[in-house]
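Lab notes, practical 5.
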Amino acid sequence: PADALIKQAVFFNNEVYVPAASGALYRSADKTSFVQVAGAPKVVAVYGAINEDNNSAPALSLLVDDSGVYRFAAMSEAGVFTMGEIAPDQFPVSGFSALSYNSMYFARLMTVAGKTAAGELTNAAWSTFDGKSWALLTDEASSYFEKKEGAALAYYDDKFYLIGGLNASGNGSKEIHLSIDKGVSWALADSMVMLPSAFASRGYSSVVVEKNKYMLIFGGKTSNNAASLNEIWRGRINRLGFKE
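Output from the prediction step:
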C-alpha cells in the first residue's frame, strides 16, 4: 500500500506485516501484494515478532491507538488481537530499533532508542515477553549513549550491537555500543570493533548477520534531510572466521 510505513515491516507467521499512516495494518504472504488485516485496531507502530518458547506462543507486538490512548497490543498467529497496558509517555513510537531474541529458553523482544509520541528522542532500552507489557531495561538516570533515532540493532558475537543513529541535531553517527547483559547496560566499543574511516556516519540503516558470521549494513542516511545511501557494507570479526 502507498501509505505503508515500510521502515516498520516485520516478518511474522510466514507473512510480512506493515502499518499504514491511516492506522490500518497490512499483511503479505508473497511480499508483493498486500491485504488489510481484518479486525485490527488502529495501529501506531509494529515492533516485531516474539518467537515461540517453552511457555508461550508467538505473537506480533504492536502499539495501537485505543480511543486516543496509546496502548500495547499483541496479535496471535490466528489473527486474534489482545490489548495490553497503556504505553508510558517515554516509550518510543517511531525511529526505534527492535530485535527478537531468546534468553534462557524464554523469547523476548527488545527496542532501543527512538522518538516518543511527544517528539522527544530517547536513549532507553525496553523488553517484552508477550507484547502486552514492556519493562524498562536501562536505568532512567543512565546515559550510556546519546538520545537518537534510527540506530541499527543486531545480535553478534554474543553481544547486542547498537550502530549509528541520528542525534537531536539530525546528524548521523558511526559509534558502536555493545551490551553483554541483554540491554541493561551499554558501553562504547573499543578500537578493535569499529567501522572503517570510509563509512559515513548515518542512521536508519538495516543490519543483518548471516550464517558465515558476516555483518551486513544496508543503506541509511547521513542526516534527517539527506537522501538514502545506495550502499552495502560487509564486515566480520576475524576470529569468528577461524575454522574450528
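Observations recorded by the TA: The two ends are 47 Å apart (CA to CA). DSSP finds no helices and 20 strands in the chain.
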